[in-house]
Amino acid sequence: MRVLVIGGHGKVARLLLPLLGEATAVFRNPDHQADVAATGAEPVVFDVEKASVDELAELIGGHEAVVWSAGAGGGNPARTYAVDRDAAIRSMDAAQRAGVRRYVMVSYFGAGPEHGVPPENGFFPYAEAKAAADAHLRASELDWTILGPSALTDEPGTGRIETAAQGATSGSVSRADVAAVVAAVLGEPGTAGRTINFNNGATPIAEAIKLP
User: Fold this and answer.
1) Of 104, 136, 196, 200, whose CB neighbour count within 10 A is largest?
2) What is the pLDDT, as a whole number, of residue 212?
3) Mean pLDDT score, 109-136
4) DSSP code for 57
5) Using one digit for the tens of pLDDT, what is the confidence trace for 129-176?
């Protein structure tokens, strides 16, 4: 499967790319080309924030799946909405236009319209942006999976998680395990049409993602 990873220089993405058989990594800063190339992926400098649906469709064409792992990084509400909501939504529309049906969104545990973040909180724009993007994806005709990892850590990967379906509430999970979950769901068609919220836990990833 040839996978397009948007946000290819992010910490999760750089752990994910070596797990994929064939991947294109998309990122904005040309200074990051060497870092991305070192993962074995094909590096592509491309600004998703400014790209149109047609430009994104051209980028996505020729791939078999899209992974959205990009983000504005907080601190600027306008840019958060521009990237985490608007650009993400355009990428979904572009994937449909390009005929690439498989789409995996890296969101966060508890994302949605009932996120409960007050407007005065600095996290509010991100919570609103992700709620809108995730809703658009669920309403699309794509074979989507939304992943909701808890707070991210740089601990080594364990290969084991606990999902909300198992009773997990928001906790923490290593970036390495998030990358492993992304790779696992790409190889598991039964995860299409599902939202999987998860922490580190005791269940092997391959088993956990199959739980209803």
Assistant:
1) 104
2) 79
3) 95
4) H
5) 999 999 999 999 999 999 999 999 999 999 999 999 999 998 999 999
126 is catalytic: yes
Beta strands in 77-212 (DSSP E): 102-106, 143-149, 151-153, 160-163, 172-174, 194-200, 203-204
Specify the pTM. 0.97
Q: Which of 81, 103, 108, 126 is catalytic?
A: 126
Structure-token pair, residue 158:
């364990």
Alpha helices in 66-174 (DSSP H): 77-80, 88-98, 124-139
DSSP reduced 3-state for 36: helix
Residue 21: exposure state from Cβ atoms within 10 A (0-12, 13-18, ≥19): exposed
Alpha-helical segments (H) within 26-87: 33-37, 53-60, 77-80
